[in-house]
Amino acid sequence: MSLWKQRAVGAEAPYFALGPFKVRLPFVHYRFEWPDYLQGLLMCAVDLAAISLMTELLGMPFEAALAIVLINGLFYLLHHLLGDPVVPGWITPAIPLLMMYVETFPEGEARVHALIAFQMMLGLFAMVLGASGVAKKVVQLIPSAMKAGVIMGAGLAAVAVVFKEGGRFETYPFTITIAVGIAFYLIFSKHFAALQDKHWLFAAIGKLGVFPIIVLAIVVAPLFSEAPWPEIEWGITQPDFVTMFTEYTLFGVGMPPWMMFVTAIPTVLAAYIVLFGDVLQSKAILDEADEVRQDEKIDYDPNRAHMIFGARNFGMSIIGPDVAMCGPLWAAMHVVIVERFKKGRKAMDSIFGGAGSFRWGTNTGLLLLPVVSLVEPILGIALALTLLIQGYVSVRIGIQEARSERDLGIAGVIAAILVVKGATWAFAAGVLLCFLIYGWRLAGPNEFKAKGEQDA
């Protein structure tokens, strides 16, 4: 029975309750959105980009790393199925922090132990915050200047990764320039939004999000000799679960020494600060969408989100530790889905339909060898694309979080320190600046709002 067809205007998408979770199934509780599913088929290229991170850091074979990507892909589905209206992804800005920490251990079993200990601690920490209800209060208590700075800093860090010396821009300069330029035009341009209202062809292209950009990159990269033409292979992918379980999980290398859990604590806290920015960003983006789409009530609960991505990290630490980690948000694709959602109920019936259909698509793509072999030459380009879109959105949302010009100044300093010195230093600097400028309250009045009221 298609319960989604019975949703009243202004109501939530239908669900059945399971404790703090709201279970929604495809075709029953939400309409399956084929444009988003098709995007997912090719955007699995970004998920596959995690393979290069694991082979580089852990010396893991390609097929074993693919097995971890597949397991993580299944865990992505938990968010929309349990009531979290987002497109989940990695904790992208924290990846450099984790790699620096793990590289302090010798390659081999010690590094695997370090990764397991870190991800298990991060998962437990997030689950405790969510289950206790503290996570939601943390979101509300953090000063707006620090919220703005963390989100802006995450965006700047994402851009810096692409353009740093030896970064992906140096490898694919022409393809990234062309692909990102067209992507920004299709997703964010008011001119293209107006064209979509006038012609069905532009409307159809707009519904596909970044799908056309990935197709374009597959063609453009070989033309500029920045990547080889894809060699299409047929069949189903063959992940090596045996090697993964026996050499890279608790079942093969055993439990990490207790001291590794202790030494992981600072990195866990630093990663959580960055992760927390994604939680804030999720809420901010959905709040924007909620104002536009009055026909569907969107319930985003930070506590529920913490329990879900905390469980994902804890589970992956046991059955497939992942360098990319399990984050609450894939900012780039979440924005693409939300932008299409904003276009009305005909374009996308429910936010859960868009987010869920996309993640069903990525999981399908990971299993299809023709899809994997098609996008394999442009994995670095796909990663750069998602980082730059995330950077744009993070900076924009971060500025909107600021309530005054003082907040903006503090946020700018926090963001810069986050990029240069890391999340721990940025957080400490933010607390100090808020105290010096605002005193014990750590937050000032909403001066932008006050100014607007005076102008009125």
Can you put this structure into words, describing what you see?
- The chain is an all-alpha fold and 456 residues long.
- Helices cover 70% and strands 1% of the residues.
- Strands 1-2 form a two-stranded antiparallel ribbon.
- Helix 3 packs antiparallel against helix 19 and helix 10 crosses helix 11.
- The chain is globular, with a radius of gyration of 21 Å.
- The C terminus is likely disordered.
Write the layout of secondary structure elements.
Blueprint: E1 16-18, E2 21-23, H1 34-48, H2 50-58, H3 62-81, H4 95-102, H5 109-132, H6 134-141, H7 144-163, H8 168-171, H9 173-188, H10 190-198, H11 200-207, H12 211-223, H13 241-248, H14 250-253, H15 258-263, H16 265-292, H17 302-319, H18 331-341, H19 351-367, H20 369-375, H21 379-401, H22 405-421, H23 423-438, H24 447-455
Antiparallel strand pairs: 1-2
Helix pairs in contact: 1-19, 1-21, 2-3, 3-13, 3-17, 3-19, 5-16, 5-17, 7-16, 7-21, 7-22, 7-23, 9-10, 9-12, 9-21, 10-11, 16-18, 18-19, 18-21, 22-23
Keywords:
disordered C terminus, 2 strands, 456 residues, mainly alpha, 24 helices
Biggest pleated-sheet summary = 2 strands, antiparallel
- Sketch the topology as an H/E string, one letter per element: EEHHHHHHHHHHHHHHHHHHHHHHHH
Radius of gyration, CA atoms, in whole angstroms: 21 Å
Flag low-confidence runs. 452-456
Mean pLDDT level:
88
- Our measurement of the CA-to-CA distance between the termini, rounded to an integer number of angstroms, reads 51 Å
Q: Give the proportion of residues in helices.
A: 55-70%
In total, how many beta strands? 2
Biggest sheet: strand arrangement: 1-2
Structural class determined from secondary elements? mainly alpha
Number of separate helices: 24
Coarse morphology: globular
Strand % is: under 5%
